[in-house]
Amino acid sequence: GQQLNQSPQSMFIQEGEDVSMNCTSSSIFNTWLWYKQDPGEGPVLLIALYKAGELTSNGRLTAQFGITRKDSFLNISASIPSDVGIYFCAAKTGANSKLTFGKGITLSVRP
Amino acid sequence: GAVVSQHPSRVICKSGTSVKIECRSLDFQATTMFWYRQFPKKSLMLMATSNEGSKATYEQGVEKDKFLINHASLTLSTLTVTSAHPEDSSFYICSAGSTGLPYEQYFGPGTRLTVT
């Protein structure tokens, strides 16, 4: 089935560093979402983007909805140990339509 | 953000028995709820879309008679795994879509099912 492209599968950074994650698609979507999942938990919504070109921040997190509506990126600045987890991008076409997910990126932060 | 709960968080059952998992939206109404299955180190796999008051829409390859979904109210959807087998062991996660803006999907904490 259709899926968003997220790579690499894993990222390793030093505490305090910034990290950027990208998510791309061959199809156009109208909403882009970024979720973080901790082991044994459900995904938690970090940022939601609704308009092409939109740039939204949530604390140390910043995400952008690509102008072509086929991509999005998430930046985490000044990483801390609790940023460890799996980051999924997701996108949808309509208000209550199903989400299409990326495979996720596992982020490790070295103290 | 909106709160979605799942119950139970963990369940162990014997092969051949049925297990019911509840998904509740606690502080908002959800006309649509989604059920996912997640294997270790994998992304979420959508099983079905549950609409309040109507039959669920199942994804290709998901047996509707095995995974029974009921969305009886705007705050509750249930997934029943019937005649469970060890290969049904997995992490099951629901999400709920709000009826009003911003129409986001909020996920429950998941249910770990182990079939022995």
What key attributes describe this structure?
heterodimer, A: 111 residues, mainly beta, six-stranded mixed sheet, five-stranded antiparallel sheet, 51% strand, B: 116 residues, seven-stranded mixed sheet, four-stranded antiparallel sheet, 0% helix
Question: Which helices and strands appear, and what pairs or packs with what?
Answer:
The complex is a heterodimer of chains A (about 110) and B (about 120).
Chain A: E1 5-6, E2 10-14, E3 19-24, E4 31-37, E5 44-49, E6 55-58, E7 61-65, E8 71-76, E9 85-92, E10 100-101, E11 105-110
Parallel strand pairs in A: 2-11
Antiparallel strand pairs in A: 1-3, 3-8, 4-5, 4-9, 6-7, 7-8, 9-10, 9-11
Chain B: E1 4-7, E2 10-13, E3 19-25, E4 30-38, E5 44-51, E6 57-58, E7 67-73, E8 76-81, E9 90-98, E10 105-107, E11 111-115
Parallel strand pairs in B: 2-11
Antiparallel strand pairs in B: 1-3, 3-8, 4-5, 4-9, 5-6, 7-8, 9-10, 9-11
Average pLDDT of chain A, rounded to a whole number, is 94
Q: What pattern of helices and strands is seen along the backbone of chain B?
A: EEEEEEEEEEE
How much helix is in the residues of chain B? under 10%
Largest sheet of chain B: 7 strands, mixed
Q: What's this model, at a glance?
A:
The complex is a heterodimer of chains A (111) and B (116). In chain A, 0% of the residues lie in helices and 51% in strands. Chain A has strands spanning 5-6, 10-14, 19-24, 31-37, 44-49, 55-58, 61-65, 71-76, 85-92, 100-101, 105-110.
